[in-house]
Amino acid sequence: MTISNDGPVPQAVPKATILGGSELHKKPAWWKEATVYQIYPASFCDSNGDGVGDIQGIKSKIPYLRSLGVDVVWLSPIYRSPQRDMGYDISDYRDIHPPYGTLDDWRDLKAELKATGIKIIMDLVVNHTSDEHEWFVESRSSKLSDKRSWYYWQPPKYDEDGNRMPPNNWRSFFGAESAWEYDDATDEYYLRLFTRTQPDLNWENPKVRKAVRDIMSFWLEEGIDGFRVDAINYIAKAPGLPDAEIIEPDIPHQPAMHLYLNRSKCHDFLRELGDKVLSRYDVMTVGETPHVEEPDMAIQYVHPERREFNMIFQWEHMDVDRIPGTLLGWKQYRLSEFKAIMSKWQITMQERGGWNSLYMENHDQGRSISRFASDSPEDRCLSGKLLATFLSTLSGTLYIFQGQDIGMINLPKEWGIEEYSDVVSEMHYRQEKERRQRESKVTDPCMKDVVEDIQKKARDNGRTPMQWSGMSPHAGFTTGTPWRKVNPDYVACNAESAVTDPDSVLNYWKRLIRLRKTWKTLIYGDFEHFAAEHEQLFVYKRSLKGDKDAYVFMNFSDAPIYGVSTIVPEFEGDLVLGNYGTPRDDDVVKSTDTLRPWEARLYCARTEWKDYR
Ligand code: NOJ
To answer: Residue limits of the Glycosyl hydrolase family 13 catalytic domain (predicted)?
Structure first.
């Protein structure tokens, strides 16, 4: 395969397909129907009391996962790593981080998961390695090293006063500092778009691409069922690494995303992986691709004929409450904006033959109940079920992040900034402080507003230990001292009590997951949206030829909504599931007129009633 010249112009998506977009979208595949459960290993379950989750702990929870009904487990990185970015900095791709266990432990886990019918996918982090990876250690040792060109090395520049400066003005993705790190040993800089311990691999080098293919083959031969591919739209950098335009003259380092994100050459690299490795296996792939907002751009990654990914994690809905240009700056968003984003992704994929990933949480996000509904004690359960209804009734592959299944929420508001230890939280705080100093703004020295934003959006929120039990110390996550404090609300919110409470968020998720296994409309059906401008109500219809139509009515507010039946005048259906209680036989209603606060109702069109309950 030849790798084409790079350029910022998006490539064309094949038009001459045998199947049209809608047929491609509806073409069945196991990974389209799957429910994926994401495990964040450090915080899932600790079996040996060292305070850190591990593989034996995960194994002990297989019965729990099985009863939830998930089809696939996605393991966030468990590879050997100095953990400067919680395993997204890998120092050995073929070994396990010792506190988590050994490769043999992992093999046992895989075998046990498979024996219960659960598939396993792994995180593939290959935009960068750890600076402790032997490739980088060798690369930094000398300008003459064989591995020098495996990374991006450049000599310094000097200003007119002779001060040393980075080779270009790119800003790191994680903050306002330079994307380049100076290395004394050889008097050169290396590129690192994330933290200074995560040097970027040089994908232009065919040996790097071959090494990545070898890692993939290693794990595929171990019998895994696919990859979640980290930060993959960063791998192609603009030729010559030119300076970015100066749009913030007060700061030396400029936003340069257009010079390293979604470059057309990235697609060539991905197709090479598809052709040479992935096409030999029946696996699923999901690319993590921040800043893919245009459908044309997204389709290039996921159109089946381009052989890149099955789907991507687009971030547009996750960014709806972020102030652009900041890491964690929070803004109030309007429901109509959120609905427009979700509808766009539903319709685009449906019309153009792509496939969605459905997620509201992961290890990079605040908890969805706290961000998108209400985490007050009286609303939390309703909110968890509302969001579960929403996510499970859209077209795409469903992803549930650990803890989302029981309705976990953000860190307590009383916890101070010292509890937020993630690199992004620290950087956001520092960056805001510097910005205020630069702008000579007199502010509250505690920066309360910044702390409040962090409380809403920090990645730390998704990383607290899983709450297994209300009775045991540390929520039953560990018998030792947990690596991160457990959210004290575990007494009310924990898996043990959720299992036995028929009205728990957990049991509600179970019903939805079961429904998706039989009601194909929920997976493949077309999406039609009503009352797009309404700022409280989210209503849509899903329909699939030969199957029953679904109608979803949701109130995304704490006030009742009246007159809902006028929104879809021809609608007549039977309640299948609602978050104000399991429907009884005499509770089957034809239409709904009032939606209570945070209420969600899923209906099956009356004309074609089948008992999905
Ligand atoms: C995306 C991962 O999800 C995130 O946790 C990580 O910090 C960056 N990529 C860098 O690998």
So the answer is: 38-463
d(CA 430, CA 216): 37
Considering the domain architecture, whether residues 31 and 178 belong to the same structural domain is answered as no
Ligand 1 pocket test, candidate residues 93, 230, 424, 463, most atoms within 8 A of CB: 230
Which residue is closest in CA terms to ligand 1's atom 11? 88
Domain count, the chain: 3
What is the pLDDT at residue 9? Answer: 41
Ligand 1 atom nearest 125 alpha carbon: 11
Q: Is the domain of 346 the same as that of 322?
A: yes
Of the pLDDT bands very low, low, confident and very high (cuts 50, 70, 90), residue 591 is low
pLDDT tens, 340-364? 999 999 999 999 999 999 999 999 9
Residues 376 and 232 in one domain: yes
pLDDT at 202 over 70: yes
Domain CATH for 178: 3.90.400.10
Residues found in the chain: 613
In 87-215, which ranges are E strands?
92-96, 119-124, 153-154, 157-158, 164-165, 180-183, 188-191
Q: Are residues 26 and 152 in the same domain?
A: no
Distance 77 CA to ligand 1 centre (A): 10
Please give the Cα distance from 133 to 192 (Å, whole number). Answer: 14
Question: 140 and 123, same structural domain?
Answer: no
Q: Could you read off the pLDDT of 44-68 as tens digits, one per residue?
A: 999 999 999 999 999 999 999 999 9
Q: Which residue CA neighbors atom 2 of ligand 1 most closely?
A: 230
Q: Which residues contact 53 (CB under 8 A, 6 or more apart)?
A: 40, 41, 42, 43, 44, 45, 46, 100, 465, 466, 477, 478
Whether residues 358 and 404 fall in one domain: yes
Question: Which residue minimizes the CA distance to atom 10 of ligand 1?
Answer: 88
pLDDT at 524 over 60: yes
151 and 28 both lie in a single domain: no
Contact 172, 179 (CB under 8 A): yes
Stronger pLDDT, 542 or 6, i.e. the higher one: 542
Ligand 1 centre to CA of 233 (Å) is 12
Q: Is residue 1 domain-resident? A: no
The pocket around ligand 1, CB under 6 angstroms, is made up of 85, 88, 125, 194, 230-231, 288, 363-364
- Are 300 and 364 found together in one domain? yes
Asked if residue 367 is part of any domain, the answer here is yes
CB 480 within 8 A of CB 50: yes
Catalytic residue set? 230, 288
Structural domain that includes position 85: 21-128+206-416+465-506
Atom of ligand 1 nearest to the CA of 231: 9
